[in-house]
Design brief:
heterodimer; A: alpha+beta; 6-stranded antiparallel sheet; 5-stranded mixed sheet; 19 strands; B: alpha/beta; globular
Chain lengths: 632, 131
């Protein structure tokens, strides 16, 4: 399950949308919307990247610039400090290399003091303190003045106790800060020499100017940058102490730091004559460069956005005009072709050689091919249809033929049933009548004997007819014969005897030949009796008043039964049809027409043959050939 | 009314049937019984002599009983005909016979024994009419 994307609904409620839905929503957008989305997204990323880079650069530049500016201020301030020191040093130099001062150091005359150490001197020279030290560095005399209040003050104790101001340690002169009464003072110390600068030095003259608020303020110079001084060890704002730490730890001489968005501070240290850190100067300025940067970056952003919008609009418009529109049109046309399905078979035209044009061409080619294929399909459908109809016709003919055959078979069956009814009823009626007749006579009486014979005869006929019916149904289902050893000669004699009576009725005789002895075959007695009976019955029926001859012949491996009569021969055209099922030479004559058919089936089932031959002069011969039992 | 002069003619292709019917009729007192073994033979006999009655089989080779009836009808022979047939359903065939030849009667062969003599006697009471 993809992680859900969480959105805020209109009422601020959290709405979970599976990311997959989001994705699928995006996929469902049209090309135009996608293009727009992509353009906007890429533009956004681009602007983001560019803007960030430029912003970074601009910021870097601005801060560097303001740092440089501040450093300049600091330098200026430092120069002013140096200037101050120079100034004082100059003054100290004027006074220290002076015969009057030289002499004073000798004789300590109060005249010198009186004329030179006037308070006006301090005011004019803007000095806070003047002090004299002897060659041992001991304090000799000094005067101090508060320039802010325009009042003489006591000389700071630090100076009084100072021992460093000796000619050898001062050299040609030193200057620097000294913290006196928790106030920084710029001191210049010069050896006391003659006016022509000759020694030996009779001491050191120091002059000092308090670096008070005014002086600190003065550091601002023309720029008007407010400045402040913070004495080390005394309470100072956090930023100052941080800067002090940085400076003291030796990282930087100056520190420039932004105090918030609108103020920039620069810090530099003040060290005293010994090089010891005594405090931190802080200069504050407006962050002009930064402010400019800010507004510039805003303008930049606006500029990007404006340009971006313009870019989006123009890109989108151009893309739409040169690409999307064509694609859209292609899509619409294709849709139209698809809808009409066979009407307008082409899309386009599309001028040009780019992929869309090629696509248009390809689509048209495909449509052409499609039309071709359709045409082919139609043709093959037609030919298939023709073939099908031919097949159908053929099959219909076959079916009609089969139907005809079926109907014919039905008719034949019905005909057979019709015939068999008659064939059975006739002998049965005869039997019936003769039973009555015999019953009216005494056994052995003339009528009785005649009727008895007639009954026997007609029973034989009935049996044959019934056998026919059984065999007919048997052969429909392909039943096997039941074979056993059988003496064919004996059977022939038996059947001939039965049909003697039939022959007598027709007033003819049956002459039997070659049926003596034994002829062993393997066969079904009942079936073969039927077959032989059938041939005998036919022979008698169609004997035409002439005698019948029948007999057995033994040939190699076979025994052949023949029966011949001298009535009408079978017509040549019917000789082949004789053994066909339901065949009757005269269709109207009584009889089922199945006798010879069944006979042949029986003989075939015994591995033998039955066939017809016309008599030498007239009449018909029927022969059955059967294989003898092996080994006989 | 049969005067016994003509006698009864049996037309049937089967010898046993002819013989049995003749015996039966004779045993019941009918003296003159004649037989023909085919339709044509029967017609020849009918042309030569006058018979009291004809017992006619339907199914015969060459000319069937129907053929005989048709010829008799054509000749406008007045003779009593009783069709004795083993074929089909008596009601159906009998109906067909009656429809075509109203004066001709019909009996199934298997009823020949009991019904035959009765029918013959009955028929002989009626006058002979052309078919």
């Amino acid at each position: 399950m993809s992680p859900p994307a969480v959105f805020r609904g209109f009422a601020g409620e959290r709405v979970l949308i599976p990311a997959r839905e989001l994705g699928s929503t995006v996929l469902r957008l049209k090309l135009r919307e996608k293009t727009l989305l992509i353009t906007m997204a890429t533009l956004f990323l681009f602007i983001l990247a560019m803007y960030s880079a430029i912003y970074g650069l601009m910021l870097q530049n601005a801060t560097a610039q303001e740092d440089r500016g501040m450093l300049r201020f600091i330098r200026e301030a430092q120069e002013r400090v140096a200037q101050e020191a120079e100034d004082i040093t100059e003054k100290a130099g004027d006074w220290s290399a002076w015969d009057d001062t030289y002499r004073y150091m000798e004789d300590r005359n109060p005249q010198y003091v009186k004329s030179n150490m006037q308070y006006t001197t301090f005011v004019v020279t803007k000095l806070s303190v003047i002090a004299f030290y002897d060659t041992n560095g001991s304090y000799v005399f000094g005067r101090a003045f508060d320039l802010d209040w325009n009042l003489p003050v006591e000389v700071p104790m630090e100076l009084v106790h100072e021992t460093r101001f000796r000619p050898d340690s001062v050299g040609s002169g030193i200057d620097g800060f000294l913290v006196l009464n928790d106030t920084p003072v710029i001191i210049a110390a010069k050896p006391v020499l003659t006016s022509s600068g000759e020694g030996p030095a009779r001491g050191v003259l120091i002059m000092g100017r308090e670096f008070g608020a005014t002086q600190v303020a003065m550091l601002s110079g023309a720029s008007g940058i407010p400045a402040g001084f913070y004495l080390a060890g005394k309470g100072m704002p956090a930023d100052v102490s941080d800067a002090e730490e940085a400076i003291v730890s030796g990282q930087d001489q100056t520190v420039v730091k932004a105090l918030g968005e609108d103020r920039l501070a620069g810090y530099f240290a003040a060290t005293d004559l010994d090089g010891r850190h005594i405090g931190v100067f802080r200069m504050e300025s407006r962050r002009q460069d930064y402010e400019e940067f800010r507004s510039n970056s805003l303008y930049l952003l606006i500029g990007f956005v404006v340009v971006g919008l313009f870019y989006i609009v123009s890109t989108f418009y151009l893309l739409d005009a040169f690409v999307l529109r064509r694609l859209r049109r292609l899509g619409e046309q294709a849709e139209q072709v698809g809808r009409e399905g066979g009407g307008k078979e082409a899309v386009g035209p599309d001028i040009g050689d780019d992929e869309i044009s090629q696509l248009t061409q390809e689509i048209n080619r495909m449509l052409q091919r499609l039309a071709q294929v359709r045409h082919q399909l139609l043709r093959s459908q037609i030919s298939y249809g023709r073939r099908l109809s031919r097949e159908v016709q053929h099959k219909t003919k076959m079916l009609e033929a089969a139907n005809e055959r079926l109907q014919h078979m039905e008719k034949t069956k019905n005909q057979f049933l019709f015939n068999i009814g008659h064939e059975l009823k006739s002998p049965l009626a005869v039997i019936e009548m003769n039973v009555e007749l015999a019953g009216n006579d005494r056994p052995g009486g003339r009528q009785w004997n005649g009727s008895f014979r007639m009954i026997k005869r007609n029973i034989v006929v009935l049996k044959q007819k019934i056998e026919e019916i059984i065999q007919l149904s048997r052969f429909e289902h392909g039943h096997d014969v039941e074979k056993a050893d059988l003496d064919l000669a004996g059977l022939v004699r038996q059947v001939a005897h039965i049909y003697d009576d039939f022959a007598k009725v027709h007033k003819v005789k049956i002459h039997l030949k070659g049926a003596e002895g034994k002829a062993t075959i393997v066969g079904d007695r009942r079936l073969l009796q039927y077959a032989l009976g059938n041939l005998f019955s036919n022979a008698v029926k169609y004997c035409d008043g002439r005698d019948i001859s029948a007999g057995l012949e033994r040939t190699d491996g076979h025994v052949v039964f023949s029966i011949e009569n001298s009535g009408e021969s079978i017509r040549p055209e019917n000789r082949k049809k004789l053994f066909m099922k339901f065949f009757k030479e005269d269709p109207n004559s009584p009889g089922t027409g199945v006798g010879l058919f069944i006979t042949r089936e029986i003989v075939k089932g015994h591995g033998g043959r039955v066939w017809y031959e016309p008599g030498k002069i007239r009449g018909s011969i029927f022969r059955i050939s059967l294989p003898v039992k092996r080994g006989e | 009314m049969a005067n016994g002069q003509g006698g009864i003619l049996i037309i049937d292709d089967e010898e046993d049937v002819r013989q049995s019917m003749a015996w039966l009729l004779k045993s019941k007192g009918f003296r003159k019984i004649d037989a023909a073994d085919s339709g044509e033979a029967g017609l020849r006999k009918l042309a030569e002599k006058e018979y009291d009655m004809v017992l006619l089989d339907l199914i015969m080779p060459k000319m069937s009983g129907w053929g005989v009836l048709e010829e008799l009808s054509r000749r406008r022979t007045a003779v009593r005909v009783l069709v004795v047939s083993a074929v089909g359903l008596p009601e159906v065939v009998g109906g067909e016979v009656a429809k075509k030849y109203p004066g001709v009667d019909f009996i199934g062969k298997t009823h020949a024994t009991d019904g035959l003599v009765l029918r013959v006697k009955e028929m002989l009471k009626k006058p002979a009419k052309p078919l």
